[in-house]
Amino acid sequence: MNFQTAIQTCLSKYATFSGRATRPEFWWFVLFVILVGVGGSILDAMIFGTGPEDGQPISMLASLALLLPYLAVGVRRLHDIGRNGWWMLLILLPLIGTLIILYWMVQPSKD
Fold this sequence. Notes:
Elements (H helix, E strand, L loop, with lengths): L2 H10 L10 H25 L9 H24 L15 H10 L6
Helix pairs in contact: 1-2, 2-3
């Protein structure tokens, strides 16, 4: 799966929490979310002259728009490795939860 196909798949399954997402699909979408965030921050700085400590309306809107598909692809990725989607709530634990989720997201798919 390439970058464009992964983005199209994730955005077409905007809020679909059932099914599976392969490792490339998840990581290409994570890269897309990061690039959109950086692009939004650059636009905020150019248009509004705001920095990270100030309000960044474009970046915040982009993050809000991509939150649901990011959670959906994360849950589908957990399904792909044989875990329940509710494990995604571990991300709410500041360090340990994030490291556990990161470890699971790099695991190969299971049948």
